Amino acid sequence: MAIIKLTGIDKIYRTKEIETQALENVNLEVEKGEFLSIMGPSGCGKSTLLNIIGLLDTPTNGSIEINSKLIDAKMSDKALAKFRNETLGFVFQSFHLIPSLNVIDNVLLPLIYRGTSHKESVERAKAVLERVGLSHRLHHMPSQLSGGQCQRVAIARAIIGQPEIILTDEPTGNLDSKMGAEVMDILHELNQKDGCTIVMVTHNEEQARQTSRIARFFDGRQVC
Amino acid sequence: MNKITLYLKQAWMMIRQNKLFSSIYITGTGLSIALTMTLFVILYIKFAPLYPEYKRDRTLIIDSVEKTEKDSTSNNYWQSTPNFSLVSMICQLPSVDAVTGVKADYWGLSRIEASTLHTSTPIVLKHTDAGYWKVYDFEFIDGRPYNDSDIQSKSKNVVVSQSCAKRLFMTEDVINKTIEISGSEYEIIGVVKDVAAVMDNKTVADVWAPFSTTEYTDIDDLLGDCEIAITAKSDNEIDAVKAEIAEMMHKYNQHDKLFNYQLLGPDTYWASQFRFGKILNEKDELLKYGYILFALLIIPALNLSGMISSRMNKRLPELGIRKTYGATNRQLLSQILWENFLLTIFGGFVGIIICYAILLCGSSWITNILHNGFIESTQLLSDNLSIEMLFNWWVFAAVLAICFILNIISALIPASISLRQTIINSLNPKQ
Prior knowledge:
CATH architecture of chain A: 3-Layer(aba) Sandwich
Oligomer: heterodimer
Low-confidence stretches of chain B: none
Radius of gyration of chain B: 29 Å
Distance between the termini of chain B: 36 Å
CATH topology of chain A: Rossmann fold
Largest interface: A-B, 28 and 27 residues
Structural class of chain A: alpha/beta
Number of domains of chain A: 1
Number of helices of chain A: 8
Mean pLDDT of chain A: 92
CATH superfamily of chain A: P-loop containing nucleotide triphosphate hydrolases
Helix content of chain B: 40-55%
Largest sheet of chain A: 6 strands, mixed
Strand order of the largest sheet of chain A: 6-7-8-3-9-10
Number of strands of chain B: 18
Number of strands of chain A: 10
Mean pLDDT of chain B: 85
Shape of chain A: globular
């Protein structure tokens, strides 16, 4: 059963002088529990596609269905925010940790917007940080962590809300191979043990081959 | 720990991480708040119920009477302060609680010497009737005020201020002691707590004496040389007092065959501060204060807004990530306002300190502003502002309100503009 269903997705960026088609008639289904890699050369529309799946950007044409819910263009800011909060987790290449918050406060961020009590949020944050091997860094600031540790904090933040889908954009792009491997191990564990559906944008052929399926893109079109 | 506590916790971290920005922001806010608060304290002193003028909210003032001839061919016209006969007439009105006439001798305020065998000192001397002690709530440390029989018998009994007693006799225990003022001997029958020099002309003095002990001039039936203060029984009865005085004057003018008298007033205490002769233009005067307040708030708010705008650009990725994880624009706006409010509150504390420094160092300047330069400080009158003038809930509430307004003006627009960015643009601002 498809947990993500994209139909006829186009994305066109328009400026006064130029019109760029980033995605053209993309039809993609991702099954529940699948670990999908999206690959392709730079500028082929991989990240744009991930952003559209993550409801961070809107398509010019086409429909998105996630977890059997058709994402309506007329959905309010509040409804979209709630949907993202409950269903999706994000891991970015550049971590995107909030520099003025310590590790634990960064991790429990999604639960703040869900209205979970602070006590429960802290307990869950400690649990996920232990899972990613950072229980000894709870009160460190992001500036005091290595790149690999930052990405593990970002993964902890992505999974604290127990989303069904994790979207990750080149999660190892800023890490050395050892740290990259550690991060990939965590993602595989989440996919296999927790049954999380993962969609990952990557340039790394080897990492992609370890996932359930690869979708390749070129010039905004899915080529296989 | 709720959301607001987390916002404030983060704001505190940001203050620590961005010390230069925070210092500039807090100092800028502090200066703006200090100036606004100074203005507010001056207005508070000017209008609020303070010792000994606790009944300002139900006080009416008559400082001038206009007299014209009934003969329509005549252009003769007189204007003067009223006299004590008018005080006696007003005293009879049913809604009047108390009324007093204070001899209007501004030019005689200073350089009168009071002396004992040991020493002499320049004083501010005020001549009043007995009703004065009912209209104003002086705190008697010792003795009593002079009464109607003292007035009628022209008893040379005086009330002195605490500082005056100490200056002349080195003690406050001065009842029945005598002082010499302008060649006449007076007996001290009461000692009152000092009145700050910033208070109204009618109450600021070192020595108070019955008006009957001095030569005063009743020009005719109603014109003379006193200023009148009336208290209504309650602030609800102010209009009733005004109506009764209007009715009284109507009847008076009907009986007088030659002249028409018109009172310039009675004005509420508030309005009387804005009267210049016949012109009473509260709205324009209030507008002036409004413009000053606006300038004091808007100019720094625009500067602060620019600073916040630049900081919001740096924080765009954070806003993006918060939106990604479920924050709505409304929640983020609330967060930014709370964070900024913390900074503004710090600015408020700095502002309070600067304001008190201005007020304490510049209290004689404030006295001059409030008295339009009319009052000349004696050695006794204190320019110092009292605790009740400086530390009161109204002043602090005003500071809080100013902080809130500054916060809204300076943070709302840059925050709204930043939040209008899409999540993708926020996450990757360079794109």
